[in-house]
């Protein structure tokens, strides 16, 4: 039964002296970023991850354990209506790969775990990847591995935490005996994220799992686990120092299966703070199969609050040789160490410029060391570039040209001399030169993470979108896309009256326009008034005239000439900058909704405020405050006083609405969430009649009655977050930008 709750939200009596407050434009003198900064599209997880975490939580509260899993089950129970979703690409771009594994019985078969895109398999040496994981299960992945009997294992939940991200948690460990066609659960459901799976090469029933645990909740299944019966039962054999200490690595000595190494890591996140290190972080060793463990010292950093994520690698050809990269709690590089006696003694190797800068300020995004199985002095280290040494760590070279940046996975295929597979933020690569260059990218890997999607009724084949790690992408027909603006892709727009007039942004509102379909781009991010800009800065067309545009910073900017010039039409519409010293761009506009009357504009902010002006900025009225992050405000193009607001947050045990609707210009709002699953709502689109569509972290839902009663829209859409949906009434289609499986489309009335 739909929940109907009227919110009496005329807040002037409590927050403002009158029903309307006039704000003169301020910040006109705010200095734009210097040109050398404007055009530096730095890719990295800190800000986008921070953006996603803050967007989906409420200050002072954590994400309830299994919240996504519970919401997914609720969504799956809703009836599905409409046609079947089809993937429209991109197939050639890829996305973040967290782990790789080889099939021991089938040459040229490699498995890849996509961060929020499931498990994939290539049977042609990494050229094409096809799905090997159920579309209806969680797509969040941390690790894949194979046993000597060919069993494929998948550990769900991504261990790379980002800058406080909603790193999507998983539902435990799974196994497949037929190459990913069928799967069964092996438990560890409370593991949150699984960093590594290692199977005894001499005993396929002996399995070790490094469980990192939930990033947001203490306890659960975290530490190193062992099964001696193929996953039927589990025993925790190494626990951490506290409830937020988890395991990220577990290695079996190739010479002695009772000799084990593990890495533990203290890491947690609250809405106000990230702590990616602590006294529980360290390298551990067991010589009795895991019955007892000792924290290794002998030159490694002593236990302390500044010890962050550690990556550990062991030589197969010389098992006494170990390497470890250590990063600080704050993120920067803190040392590279080598041991030649199985970990008793460690030597800090030279801090070369290539090595020390490789981790940038976010070493917690990497934490991986890979040793050539045939050459113990040949080592690769994950970083922004891929680092390589052939001298055991004394000198390094950085390969930042032939692959995408930000590396996470590597595996040697010893059946093919010098063949190596690599996974990074751009997808999967193969080298037949021992990983020392010669990288060839996979040609088919449709697991891109999209923040936005843009379409035009003029040409259904024309589509673009902003993608995490992979810039602004476009296709003027077919599933192959190309990047036309770098950085982390954010807002993308196509002029509805001129398909060659396109707009694209990278992080923090660095936006460009083009009149030739993106072939040449002109920067306008330095022409607006802004003291703070959101990671995803909203830029929108006026529905009456696309030459009129709006740009949301901490103030609202308006252009009447397609973005060439801008004027601030508000003061600061937020509560000011946040208190977090890391995320300094809090206190910004997140969504802008101009009405069809040419005068009314609604905006929403990251600190839970919704405003309206009915005179193009002459005065502003506060409609809502104290809400979670406002993901979208949408105004009915036929009625300026019919407005919808979507929110994105979890509150433990709360039934607060996630979709609000007003028929009187925001004076009163009604809860329209009804039968929606309790999950973050990211976008809303208005269809024909009373039809509403919403994109959520659990897919796309439709209400033919204007809210309250919701149904699943269509069939065939994977269980993946949908950040943006676009409705095309002319061509009767709905297009969804997913955060992990690319772009999908479905025919609608």
UniProtKB/TrEMBL annotation:
<dbReference type="InterPro" id="IPR015943">
    <property type="entry name" value="WD40/YVTN_repeat-like_dom_sf"/>
</dbReference>
<dbReference type="GO" id="GO:0010411">
    <property type="term" value="P:xyloglucan metabolic process"/>
</dbReference>
<dbReference type="Pfam" id="PF02012">
    <property type="entry name" value="BNR"/>
</dbReference>
<dbReference type="InterPro" id="IPR002860">
    <property type="entry name" value="BNR_rpt"/>
</dbReference>
<dbReference type="InterPro" id="IPR036278">
    <property type="entry name" value="Sialidase_sf"/>
</dbReference>
<keyword id="KW-0732">Signal</keyword>
<dbReference type="InterPro" id="IPR052025">
    <property type="entry name" value="Xyloglucanase_GH74"/>
</dbReference>
<protein>
    <submittedName>
        <fullName>BNR/Asp-box repeat-containing protein</fullName>
    </submittedName>
</protein>
<feature type="signal peptide">
    <location>
        <begin position="1"/>
        <end position="22"/>
    </location>
</feature>
<feature type="region of interest" description="Disordered">
    <location>
        <begin position="22"/>
        <end position="45"/>
    </location>
</feature>
């Amino acid at each position: 039964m739909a929940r109907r709750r009227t919110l009496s939200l005329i807040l002037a009596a409590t927050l403002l002296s009158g029903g309307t407050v006039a704000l003169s434009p301020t910040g006109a003198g705010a200095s734009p970023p210097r040109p050398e900064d404007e055009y530096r599209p730095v890719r990295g997880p800190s800000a986008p991850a921070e953006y996603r975490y803050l967007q989906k939580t409420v200050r002072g509260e954590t994400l309830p354990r299994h919240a996504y899993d519970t919401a997914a089950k609720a969504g799956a129970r809703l009836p599905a209506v409409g046609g079947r979703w089809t993937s429209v690409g991109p197939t050639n771009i890829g996305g973040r790969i967290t782990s790789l594994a080889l099939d021991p019985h089938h040459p040229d078969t490699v498995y890849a775990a996509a961060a929020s895109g499931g498990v994939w398999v290539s049977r042609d040496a990494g050229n094409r990847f096809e799905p090997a994981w159920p579309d209806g299960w969680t797509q969040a992945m941390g690790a894949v591995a194979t046993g000597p009997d060919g069993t494929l294992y998948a550990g769900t939940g991504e261990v790379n935490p980002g800058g406080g991200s909603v790193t999507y948690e998983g539902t435990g460990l799974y196994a497949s005996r037929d190459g990913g066609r069928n799967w069964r659960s092996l438990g560890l459901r409370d593991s949150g994220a699984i960093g590594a799976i290692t199977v005894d090469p001499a005993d396929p029933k002996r399995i070790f799992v490094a469980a990192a645990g939930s990033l947001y909740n203490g306890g659960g299944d975290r530490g190193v686990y062992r099964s001696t019966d193929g996953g039927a039962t589990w025993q925790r054999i190494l626990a951490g120092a506290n409830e937020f200490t988890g395991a990220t690595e577990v290695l079996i000595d190739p010479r002695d299966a009772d000799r084990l190494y593990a890495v533990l890591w203290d890491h947690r996140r609250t809405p106000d703070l990230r702590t990616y290190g602590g006294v529980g972080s360290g390298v551990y060793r067991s010589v009795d199969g895991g019955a007892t463990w000792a924290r290794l010292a002998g030159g490694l950093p002593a236990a302390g609050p500044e010890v962050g994520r550690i990556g550990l690698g062991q030589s197969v050809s010389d098992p006494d040789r170990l390497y470890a990269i250590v990063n600080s709690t704050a993120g920067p590089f803190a040392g590279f160490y080598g041991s030649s006696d199985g970990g008793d003694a460690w030597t800090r190797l030279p801090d070369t410029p290539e090595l020390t800068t490789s981790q940038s300020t976010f070493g917690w995004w990497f934490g991986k060391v890979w040793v050539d199985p045939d050459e113990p002095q040949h080592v690769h280290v994950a970083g922004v570039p891929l680092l390589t040494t052939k001298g055991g760590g004394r000198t390094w070279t950085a390969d930042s040209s032939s692959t995408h940046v930000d590396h996470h996975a590597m595996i040697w295929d010893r059946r093919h001399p010098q063949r190596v597979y690599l996974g990074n933020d751009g997808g999967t690569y193969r080298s037949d030169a021992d990983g020392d260059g010669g990288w060839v990218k996979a040609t088919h890997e449709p697991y891109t993470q999209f923040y936005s999607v843009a379409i035009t009724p003029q040409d259904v084949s024309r589509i673009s979108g902003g993608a995490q790690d992979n810039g602004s992408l476009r296709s003027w027909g077919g599933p192959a896309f190309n990047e036309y603006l770098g950085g982390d892709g954010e807002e993308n727009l196509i002029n509805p009256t001129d398909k060659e007039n396109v707009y694209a942004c990278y992080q923090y509102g660095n936006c460009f326009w083009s009149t030739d379909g993106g072939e040449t781009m002109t920067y306008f991010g330095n022409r607006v008034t802004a003291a703070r800009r959101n990671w995803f800065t909203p830029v929108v067309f006026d529905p009456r005239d696309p030459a009129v545009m709006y740009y949301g910073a901490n103030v609202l900017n308006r252009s009447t000439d397609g973005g060439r010039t801008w004027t601030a039409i508000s003061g600061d519409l937020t509560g000011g900058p946040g208190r977090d010293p890391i995320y300094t761009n809090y206190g910004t506009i997140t969504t802008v909704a101009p009405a069809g009357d040419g005068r009314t504009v609604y905006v929403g902010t990251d600190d839970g405020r919704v405003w309206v002006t009915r005179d193009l900025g002459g005065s502003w009225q506060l409609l809502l405050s104290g809400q979670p992050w406002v993901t979208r405000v949408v105004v009915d193009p036929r009625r300026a006083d019919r407005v919808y607001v979507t929110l994105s947050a979890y509150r433990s045990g709360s039934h607060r609405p996630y979709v609000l609707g007003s028929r009187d210009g925001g004076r009163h709002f009604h809860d329209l969430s009804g039968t929606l699953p309790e999950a973050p709502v990211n976008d809303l689109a208005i269809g024909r009649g009373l039809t509403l569509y919403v994109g959520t972290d659990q897919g796309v839902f439709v209400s033919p009655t204007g809210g309250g009663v919701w149904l699943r829209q269509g069939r065939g859409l994977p269980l993946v977050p949908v950040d943006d949906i676009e409705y095309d009434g002319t061509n009767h289609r709905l297009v969804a930008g997913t955060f992990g499986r690319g772009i999908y489309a479905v025919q609608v009335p």
